[in-house]
Amino acid sequence: MTALSDDEFENILSIQNKCTRLNLNENIYGTFAEIGAGQETVRHFFRAGNPKGTIAKTLSAYDKDFSDAIYGLDPQNRYVTVARLHRMMDYEANLIEERLSRQKYPNKLFFSYANTVATIDWAKKYKGHGWLGIKFQKEPKQEYSEIILHVQFHENNASQQQISLGIMGVNLIYAAFYQSDDPRQLINKLYDHLSKDKIEIDSINFKGPVFKDVDNRLMSLELVKEGITEAVMFSPDGNNILPANVLYKKNILTLRGSFRPVTNLNLNMYVTARKLFLNQENVDPDNTVIIFEMTLNNLKSEGDNEINEKDFLDRADLLCASGQTVMISNFQEYYKVVEYFSQHTKKEMGLVMGVDNLIDIFNEKYYRHLSGGILEAFGKLFFKSLKVYLYPMRDEETGKIINSKNLKVHPRVKELYKFFIDNGKLIDIENYDEEALDIHPRKVYEMILDDDPKWEEMVPGLTAKMIKEKNLFSKEKASH
Do you know which InterPro entries this protein is assigned to (predicted)? Predict the structure, then answer.
């Protein structure tokens, strides 16, 4: 067989060509471990030329007892988890290092690819999901790097889901060795020969020497920007986390904002709404998650369609430092947030917002794309037990405090508004900080840029300390 040149391979990136290029690379060598319903990736390598050049071992532990015997028992008796995936990759990588002498194979680049998957069930109640990842070296004896991702299946046939998984698995292995210098490009290359509406990546993490300069929060942002998924989350430590795991059967309280930066107004909204939410009879504090949400629009500067990544990371650093779980979404309308959460929980939900946001919610122009208009949107928004915790606003002209009781809405939606008031869907936050009402986040941001020291009085102490120490939101960064 005649080997193709690099240029020829890059121009013919079929799945078979990718496998063949990997197989013909005499140094790339590793194991494939695929458990559960997804046992498709290695098949592509067997069908391509010279599979013995790449495949040291392939394992398909479909039986749970066999899987447990090899990779150990899961404390919760679960198999489609990131913990199981890690055990699979670590076990297989250690095994190849033990069994293949570095003296005999000094130039080998070892890898272990693994996936653990559940495809759609017979009743088609659960669409299916899975974890897949690769642990690999780009230099001999190098510490291993990792790419781990979680996928949601959207096809309605198990066989089709398996085919899509197999293609993505090949794309992942190929990208690890040939496209990992640019993680953004790598993310998009995972969809070679795949449609984004077939399989969704909702979490991805990069780790190791190959990705030493990668910030996984930016990779989360990339998933949303590219339309690969609707929402991503990251934890206070900055690692991407699976939304389904965070939200599953939880009470959820959400605060949306730009957080540029977090102000005393944001903090007081959070503290007062949290107290009201947790005081509900059906809300268990130990089974509650609080989400700070930013939409893509929140991340864009006024009049600019581009997202300043440094600015985004400044905001993320402040939220993470205060121990918050952060969600980035492309949900313009609040009802879409509620729809998203309702996929994962039937427990209590709450939205924290200011009066100005509530006025926008009752603006019919935002729902013209819906056949049922504002009624359809509100049917989704006030899902079962959802409540809005409303922070008041001071009228700048009259100085009057505006809340749900004296807010004026358009006459066409007046009765609709009254309906939600009468049914206890709108809860006024009464124990608010009156001084915080005079804080305008955009003005605070401008004061930071202008080196006006008065901004320090308008933000929490930790926030002020970090902004000064790390020079966050500086003019230099804002100009990028």
Answer: Rossmann-like_a/b/a_fold (IPR014729)
Q: How many domains does the chain have?
A: 2
Residue 132's alpha-carbon distances to 8, 71, 76, 146, 310, in angstroms, are 29, 16, 20, 11, 30
Same domain, 199 and 253: no
- Token pair in block for residue 102: 């570095």
Same domain, yes or no: 332 and 274: yes
Mean pLDDT of the chain: 89
One domain, residues 209 and 251: no
pLDDT, tens only, 438-461: 999 899 999 999 999 999 999 999
SS3 413: helix
The answer to whether position 239 is within a domain reads: no
Residue 377, domain extent: 245-478
The string of DSSP codes covering 435-459 is GGGG--HHHHHHHHHTT-GGGGGGS
Measured between alpha carbons, how far is 181 from 212 in angstroms, rounded to an integer?
11
Q: In this structure, what are the phi and psi dihedrals at residue 333, rounded to the nearest 5 degrees? A: -95, 145
pLDDT digits (tens, 9 = 90+) for 70-119: 888 777 678 889 999 999 999 999 999 999 988 888 999 999 999 999 88
Are 71 and 114 spatial neighbours (Cβ–Cβ below 8 Å)? Answer: no
> Does 222 map to a domain?
no
Rounded Cα–Cα distance for residues 167 and 423 (Å): 51
pLDDT class of 8 with cuts at 50, 70, 90: very low
Residue 334 to residues 248, 256, 275, 355, Cα–Cα distance (Å): 20, 9, 22, 14
DSSP 4: P
Instruction: Count the neighbouring beta carbons within 10 Å of the beta carbon of residue 275.
Output: 12
For residue 398, count other CB atoms closer than 10 A to its CB: 8
User: 126 falls in which pLDDT band (50, 70, 90)?
Assistant: confident
> Which residues lie closer than 8 Å to 214 by C-beta, 6 or more apart?
183, 206
What CATH number is associated with residue 147?
A: 3.90.950.20
* Contact yes or no for 127/139 (Cβ under 8 A): no
| Of 214, 232, 264, the domain-final residue | 214
The set of residues, in sequence order, having a beta carbon less than 8 Å from that of 156 and lying 6+ positions away, is 120, 124, 127
Of 113, 111, 93, which is closest to residue 170 (Cα–Cα)?
A: 113
> Are 195 and 328 members of one domain?
no
Average pLDDT over residues 138-166: 94
260 touches 443 (CB < 8 A): no
Q: Is 159 helix (H, G, I), strand (E, B) or coil?
A: helix
pLDDT band at 383 (very low <50, low <70, confident <90, very high): low
Residue that terminates a domain, selected from 161, 193, 214: 214
CA atoms within 13 A on the CB side of 149: 28
